[in-house]
Amino acid sequence: MSLTNASPEQAARAAKISSRTLATLPTSARNAALDAIHDALAAARDEILAANARDLELAKKSAASGELSGSILKRIDLSRKGKFDDMLQGIKDVLELEDPVGRVDLRTELDDGLILQRQTCPIGVLLIIFEARPEVIANIASLAIKSANAAILKGGKESTESFKAISTVISKALASTEVPNDSIQLVTTRDAVDPLLELSQYIDLVIPRGSNELVSYCQKKAHMPVLGHADGLCHIYIHSDASPEMAVNVVVDSKTDYPAACNSVETLLVHEEVLETVLPAVAEALINKGVTLRCDSQSKAAIAKHIKSDLLEDASDKDYNTEFLDLILAIRTIPSSAAVDEAIHHINTHGSHHTDCIITASKQVADHFSNGIDSACKFWNCSTRFCDGMRFGFGTEVGISTNKVHARGPVGLEGLMIHEYRLEGSGQGAAMYGDGGRQYKHKKLSLT
Amino acid sequence: MSLTNASPEQAARAAKISSRTLATLPTSARNAALDAIHDALAAARDEILAANARDLELAKKSAASGELSGSILKRIDLSRKGKFDDMLQGIKDVLELEDPVGRVDLRTELDDGLILQRQTCPIGVLLIIFEARPEVIANIASLAIKSANAAILKGGKESTESFKAISTVISKALASTEVPNDSIQLVTTRDAVDPLLELSQYIDLVIPRGSNELVSYCQKKAHMPVLGHADGLCHIYIHSDASPEMAVNVVVDSKTDYPAACNSVETLLVHEEVLETVLPAVAEALINKGVTLRCDSQSKAAIAKHIKSDLLEDASDKDYNTEFLDLILAIRTIPSSAAVDEAIHHINTHGSHHTDCIITASKQVADHFSNGIDSACKFWNCSTRFCDGMRFGFGTEVGISTNKVHARGPVGLEGLMIHEYRLEGSGQGAAMYGDGGRQYKHKKLSLT
Fold first, then answer.
1. Does residue B102 surpass a pLDDT of 70?
2. Closest Cα in chain A to B403
């Protein structure tokens, strides 16, 4: 890993060149590099925490003058209990993952002695832009090396000292391994981002990890594909046959487990017939957790019959297009005449195609709902918060994608891979086949 | 299918809306639509050929005045022997393909009664831009319907009358099926392309099928992903242990089977040690087929000892960066000191990451070469011309991609699909799991 002072073009070209070496290294060499990074970071704990303390000092001043929010302060602080150890454990966790490189997923005998094979391979060079949390750099470097991708990293300026310290340690650790130093580079200046986003001849994929603004910016500016999602405007639709208890549990968890997360619910759609039966219990549980409810007139009237609360408000149209990321929930009534189809229409029109959920006792209704919505994740009777790479069992999460190509939903290491075809022949030419000539066999072969 | 006079935005929005209906149709409904299209086109043969004759009439005038090449004339002509029947058969072939929608490729028990499933689904709305061959419209409409994607089609202006006639027939045929008419739309004005390329809120993927210029244009202008390749600058490297006979067969086929194709070889790299032993036979066979050889001084001298020919020329630097698409081949000597690594370096620097081949008797050398090159297709001892969806056994070819994400190499129906996650629960919330709570099982389930 190098803390690069090179121009963006030089850095990107160096990354591209080193990516070809990285792509040819065996599993053992990549895992050895992860071990080396782990041990070096463990040994350098004091100097890294000292650098982090300098970031924190500056950040506290900014916070005091109101330039920085308190939540960012918390994110920067690497000395909080367990955080450094979690960072180290994260590297070990990535190390333990199955090697994603060279997995054969198709083998076909085109003809005698003409064997086609498709296998996974790294994408090449990743540009990963993230925000203030200093431990993210170790996580991302690990994911890149594990997946044999070169990576250019740009972290938030609030953690510059921490990033520099960590990258210096990683750089020294890599020097004793087969992983080329240029395959992981840290850029520290904001100015470098725009030129990097244009270097599609060297950089194959951009992964912004952070705010909506950051992702939208990359999506607009990048000349290469961007993996991610700008918005997480998730819905839950409570159907007429929903169990009140299940509705309470799922909605409360989806809204309050971690309101700032992209997979938290933002709009609740409620079938007209259960406004009086299911909704009041849901509303009461939410209000008890401090959630403000912004309701259309019908749902508000139904709730108001049971509960008096300052947290009961009128919704405006804008609320149904807003990702609150806070303890606020928009509620809308779905007329019984249109039922599921109106819920589908609302979600496809107002949603962000991230995660949407139905609560119903009927599999038929759930399937109709899931077929109709255009979402990466379609949930039935469970919290939207389960949309997550770790919870899905991927071992790690590179991000959550709402793209319609390559990777969609929670993305594990698989999302950092593409495939290549290898064809092994014995002198064949295409002109030998066809009219009057040889015929292709196209015989599927076992993968091992 | 509608021949749309709507604005690009109206057309794209209508396509997006209809794509949700299309996505929910069962296999049988999509196949019935393909049958209906097939039968309607067969019944309308005379009126379509009459429209095609009008295109041909105009094209002949343009050809006479030198505005249009003779090869385009040939491509427009749908009345050539077998062409119309091939178009009809193509629809049946697509119909017979396995349904790509709803294939489950991951099932995991996250916990008791919390089952995750990943399954394939259509991408949504495709924008497909193609050139003059009128039969392509039927092929593309079939692929879109089979894969449950809506599509906006824009064909080359030389075949406008043919496209209009075919799309009118398809439109009438679809009216009696469950496939929404707006799911396949034809736009006929060149002006519509630029605005369409910006409508990323409605259009999910652009597939340009045609010249390098067309693909490059789309790659530069499109706000959504583009599937394809601008260049096909393919290489063959003849290693020191190559069999002369195999080298002759593979190189001649790669260059002369269809020189205008993207998978034809453009540069031949020859190990220094076989300049006198293998190269002369290869050169002679190529010259006998009328191929001009543009050589560096070493390879030219070696060939000139055996053959005198006007087709033997000096290469300039530019020749090693040129996709000739013609009976021209650049030849360069690889010094024995660097051997395979120099060939790899040349290919990664000058190539287009499409298809590159090595001729060698050694599996170890072939693997080293294939690991080192950054190409979608890595061939060993066989013609580069095998890089093709039909030859690979995919049943069809949507295009050949040199992208590093989503689809790479020859792309079949699979390239028109993405996946979605479905999670079926029984009231679970994420807060139930973790410290002191329940643990995830992450048990892999069988796919059926």
1. yes
2. A204
**Which chain A residues are closer than 8 Å to B421 by Cβ?**
376-378, 387, 392, 409-410
Residues in A touching B250 (Cβ below 8 Å): 425, 427-429
Q: Is the residue at A265 inside a domain?
A: yes
Please check whether residues B60 and B165 belong to one and the same domain.
yes
pLDDT of residue A4: 63
Looking at the 3D structure of chain A, how many domains does it have? 2
Same domain, A211 and A238: no
Other CB atoms within 10 A of residue B220 CB: 11
Query: Is B275 found in the same domain as B141?
Result: no
Provide the shortest C-alpha distance from residue B371 to chain A (in Å).
6
Q: What is the CATH number of the domain that holds B319?
A: 3.40.309.10
Domain assignment present for B421: no
Chain A residue nearest residue B245, CA to CA: A427
Tell me the ipTM for this assembly: 0.94
Alpha helices in A340-437 (DSSP H): 340-350, 363-372
Identify each DSSP E strand in B175-302 by its residue range: 184-187, 205-209, 234-238, 265-271, 292-295
Q: How confident is the model at residue B230, as a pLDDT?
A: 82
B348–A20 CB contact, under 8 Å? yes
Cβ atoms of A48 and A78 within 8 Å: the answer is yes
**Most distant CA pair in chain B, distance:** 85
Question: Of the candidates B227, B375, B429, which has its C-beta nearest A257's C-beta?
Answer: B429
Domain interval for residue A18: 2-221
Q: Quick check: A2 pLDDT over 80? A: no
Q: What is the mean pLDDT of chain A?
A: 94
CATH number for the domain spanning B164: value is 3.40.605.10
Closest partner CB to A442 (pick from B393, B431, B442): B393
Question: What pLDDT score does B212 carry?
Answer: 84
Identify the DSSP state of B320. G
B214 with B333, same domain: the answer is: no
Q: Are residues A138 and A23 in the same domain?
A: yes
Other beta carbons within 10 angstroms of residue A28's beta carbon come to 10
Amino acid at B205: L
Minimal Cβ distance to A430: which of B124, B377, B383: B383
Q: Which of B381, B403, B419 sits opposite A426 (nearest CB)?
A: B381
- For the segment B344-366, what is each residue's pLDDT rounded down to a tens digit? 999 999 999 999 999 999 999 99
Q: What is the pLDDT of residues A261-312, one digit of tens each?
A: 999 999 999 999 999 999 999 999 999 999 999 999 999 999 999 999 999 9
Q: Chain B contacts of A404, Cβ < 8 Å? A: 123-124, 204-205, 225, 418
A198-223: average pLDDT: 90
**Same-domain check for residues A158 and A32:** yes
The tens digit of pLDDT for each residue in B394-433 reads 998 889 999 999 999 999 999 999 999 999 999 999 999 9
Instruction: Report yes or no: B414 and B123 within 8 Å, Cβ to Cβ.
Output: no
pTM for this predicted structure = 0.94
Tell me, rounded to whole angstroms, the distance of Cα A104 from its chain centroid: 25
Which residues from B are below 8 Å from A409, CB to CB? Answer: 118, 419-421
In a domain, B405, yes or no: no
Q: What residue in B sits closest to A370 (Cα-Cα)?
A: B422
The secondary structure element, H or E, covering residue B120 is: strand B114-122
Strand, helix or coil for residue A176: coil
Average pLDDT over all residues of chain B: 94
Chain A contacts of B252, Cβ < 8 Å? Answer: 429
How distant is the Cα of A160 from the closest Cα of chain B, in angstroms?
A: 31
Cβ neighbours of residue B89 closer than 8 Å, sequence gap 6 or more: none
Is residue A125 in some structural domain?
yes
